[in-house]
Design brief:
Helices cover about 50% and strands about 15% of the residues. It is an alpha/beta fold. The chain has an eight-stranded mixed beta sheet with strand order 3-2-1-4-5-6-7-8, with helices on both faces. Helix 9 (about 170-195) packs across helix 12 and helix 10 (about 205-210) packs antiparallel against helix 11 (about 220-230).
Amino acid sequence: MELGMIGLGKMGAFMTERLVKGGHRVVGFDRDAAAVQRVIDKGSAGADSLEKMISQLKAPRAVWLMVPAGAPVDQTIEQLLPHLAPGDTIIDGGNSYYKDSVRRAAALAPKKINFVDSGTSGGVWGLAEGYSMMVGGDADVVKRLSPIFETLAPGPNKGWGRVGPAGSGHFVKMVHNGIEYGIMQAYAEGLDLLRHKKEFDLDLLQVSQIWQFGSVIRSWLLDLTVDALQKNPTLDGVGAYVTDSGEGRWTVIEGIDLGVALPVISGALDVRFRSQDPEPFANKLLAMMRHEFGGHAVKTVAK
């Protein structure tokens, strides 16, 4: 099967390489000519424009987008439309907001352009391990494209599946990322508590390695934690600043909209927000309030 791939950053390039190794023909496009050349060197075809990429594909054509969520997806679709025909399919494999995917599918339907949203997990490990893909879209369209998903997945019948109509793939991926926030936070808090028990002089790497086997909390995230601790046991030089991709925010907002309590995911998101503030004003206010009502000492810092 053949496919156009737009966006050849690390993940898009790895997906292209896995598809080529699986016997698919891929035509890659990226605004960065060097990125296109890298996938050509791995056996893919390449193009220096969207029009030239589309011209190299046989109808009905399928084009996979790996571009940043939001406006870049809409802009790419608008640029693609003049070169597409009824029966062609656009697959959004990025971390788009699911409501945007529902909107895009509805806008493309009158033009008879199919829209499939594939919430994709696996990151830089996907090339070797395969990608987990939560796919939304018309059942017949997804079935026709199944050879692509089967090649990208850890196995033909595992790690991927159609979860519902357009938008559902990115919705499931959004919740997946919210769960990820909570699991990561639990590991971080537990290991931090162990670190603070100074009289036991616990080795966090050793404890994490023990947990990897037989423990009910063993997981791939724990394996990655072990890898990180092996490289830098005390995390020297690592700033206590945790970014959020936006999917945790969307998950919490959805919980509010549906009246579903998400205390773990919400708390993990709050911690990330706090880490992004170098001087949390709320904490300063708390210190001053204690001083005002109780005369408690306030720690001063140099201006």
